[in-house]
């Protein structure tokens, strides 16, 4: 079976590369993925697969029905790009300024189209119904997955599988793990307000920069002293703004003799367990409240919960691992991989039904393909798409 699957993947490879490059050149953001969704819907329809469009606003769902089958598995691809300028020199570089497929969702869409083509040809060998799920807006909160689920994308589905190209692993490698694999990823926005004034008279002010920097230092102790060392968590402050300098001009023209009335602080919290998330969130606010109170300042604390944990269930993990092992052997299987504190809206599906998410190696050091997802020079070794399709096809044939 392995040889047949790889043979089919190789046969479709050039077409799938062409589809990926086409999508790559015309990236679309969030729910605005009309062109990409059109490509997916047309491809399924051309195979005679009944298609529903407008699922989760701009998503596409197709069902390959198999006579006599009782089980249905779903295979999911995301279709959206990122609002980043691409800085590669590839001939299929993004033609749209400020938008680019720098997370590989173009490859995910192309691979799921390829998988549908191969499975249509092998339909007589299938024992389960297959649902192809193309979703919008993985990159932007609130995510496309909740909208897809609300519109019935998981109805009558027993298990769901998703893949992600990952340049930190080499082409031909797969990585997954049981339990939590990707993090709950939350964000926080804080306004800390004191009393501004003349920098030569600090005693007449409540200096939010001094309080804010104490807060940033203090939260470093949350991970070190409030989270069990065996659990995982990250708190990163990614924004700290005070005063009115124009960041583009450095500090040219900035009022260096004024203590500002307030500062803005923002960042992200990544956790793998609900109790850890609750603990970190609580500690953040109590440190903020304590410091503000001690210095006569006030604050607002806006904590936004992001995508839930992507949780890999049994028996899906065993199925995925057995499938991967059959394709590439034990040596090319990274299992169990350590969980990653990145977020994925595939987590929503995994909260609803048994699921497994698998990283597909897409890096190639010799070709200089080493940049991580979201890097402006991110790219994949396109050969990885053979392995992505092979995994999905093999999963669907069980
Ligand atoms: Zn991404
Ligand atoms: Zn992604």
Write the layout of secondary structure elements.
Layout (H helix, E strand, L loop, with lengths): L1 H24 L8 H13 L4 E5 L3 E6 L7 E7 L26 H17 L7 E7 L9 H6 L8 E12 L3 E2 L3 E4 L1 E10 L3 E2 L9 H18 L7 E10 L15 E2 L2 E10 L2 H21 L3 E7 L5 E3 L3 H13 L4 E2 L11 H7 L2 E9 L20 H13 L2
Helix pairs in contact: 1-3, 1-9, 2-3, 3-9, 5-6, 7-9
Bound molecules: zinc ion (ZN) (2 copies).
How does this model look, in words?
With 398 residues, this protein is α/β, with parallel strands linked by helices. The chain has 2 domains: 2-182 and 309-396, 3-Layer(aba) Sandwich (Aminopeptidase), CATH 3.40.630.10; 184-304, 2-Layer Sandwich (Alpha-Beta Plaits), CATH 3.30.70. Helices cover 33% and strands 25% of the residues. The strands form 4 sheets. An 8-stranded mixed β-sheet has the order 1-2-4-3-5-16-6-15. The model has no long low-confidence stretch (mean pLDDT 96). One zinc ion binds at residues 103, 105, 138, 164, 373.
Instruction: Provide the spatial order of strands within the biggest beta sheet.
Output: 1-2-4-3-5-16-6-15
**What's the tally of helices?**
9
Estimated radius of gyration: 24 Å
Alpha-carbon distance between the two ends = 11 Å
Low-confidence parts, pLDDT < 50 over ≥5 residues?
none
CATH topology description of the largest domain: Aminopeptidase
Whole-number count of domains: 2
**What proportion of the residues form beta strands (DSSP E)?**
15-25%
CATH-assigned homologous superfamily of the largest domain: Zn peptidases
H-E order: HHEEEHEHEEEEEHEEEHEEHEHEH
Would you count the extended β strands for me? 16
Coarse morphology: elongated
- Could you tell me the mean pLDDT? 96
What is the level-2 CATH architecture name of the largest domain?
3-Layer(aba) Sandwich
Instruction: Summarize the biggest pleated sheet.
Output: 8 strands, mixed
Counting helices, strands and paired strands, the structural category is alpha/beta
What small molecules does this complex bind?
A: zinc ion
Tell me roughly what share of residues is in helical segments: 25-40%
At the first level of CATH, what is the class of the largest domain?
Alpha Beta
């Amino acid at each position: 079976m392995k040889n047949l699957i790889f043979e089919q993947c190789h046969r479709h490879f050039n077409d799938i590369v062409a589809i990926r490059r086409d999508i790559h050149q015309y990236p679309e953001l969030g729910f605005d993925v009309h062109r990409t969704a059109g490509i997916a819907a047309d491809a399924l329809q051309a195979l005679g697969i009944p298609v529903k469009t407008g699922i989760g606003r701009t998503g596409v769902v197709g069902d390959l029905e198999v006579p006599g089958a009782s089980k249905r598995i779903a295979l999911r691809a995301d279709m959206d790009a990122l609002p980043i300028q691409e800085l590669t020199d590839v001939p299929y570089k993004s033609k749209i300024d400020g938008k680019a497929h720098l997370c590989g969702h173009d490859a995910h869409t192309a691979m799921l189209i390829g998988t549908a083509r191969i499975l249509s040809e092998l339909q007589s060998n299938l024992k389960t119904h297959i649902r192809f799920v193309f979703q919008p807006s993985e990159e932007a909160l609130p995510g496309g997955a909740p909208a897809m689920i609300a519109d019935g994308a998981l109805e009558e589905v027993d298990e769901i599988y998703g893949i992600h190209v990952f340049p930190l692993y080499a082409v031909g490698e797969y990585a997954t793990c049981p339990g939590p694999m990707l993090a709950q990823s939350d964000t926080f926005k804080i306004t800390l307000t004191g009393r501004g004034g003349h920098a030569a008279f600090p005693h007449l002010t409540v200096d939010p920069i001094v309080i804010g920097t104490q807060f940033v230092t203090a939260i470093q102790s949350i991970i070190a002293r409030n989270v069990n060392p065996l659990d995982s968590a990250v708190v990163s402050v990614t924004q700290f703004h005070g005063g009115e300098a124009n960041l583009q001009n450095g500090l040219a023209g900035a009022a260096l003799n004024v203590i500002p009335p307030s500062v803005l602080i923002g960042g992200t919290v990544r956790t793998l367990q609900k109790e850890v998330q609750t603990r970190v969130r609580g500690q953040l606010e109590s440190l903020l409240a304590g410091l503000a109170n001690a210095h006569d300042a006030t604050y607002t604390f806006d904590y936004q919960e992001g995508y839930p944990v992507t949780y890999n269930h049994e028996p899906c993990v065993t199925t995925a691992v057995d499938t991967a092992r059959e394709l590439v052997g034990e040596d090319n299987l990274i299992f169990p991989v350590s969980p990653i504190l990145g977020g994925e809206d595939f987590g929503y599906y995994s909260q609803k039904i048994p699921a497994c998410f698998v990283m597909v190696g897409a890096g190639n050091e010799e070709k200089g393909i080493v940049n991580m997802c979201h890097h402006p020079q991110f790219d994949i070794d396109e050969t990885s798409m053979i392995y992505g399709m092979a995994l999905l096809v093999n999963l669907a044939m069980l």
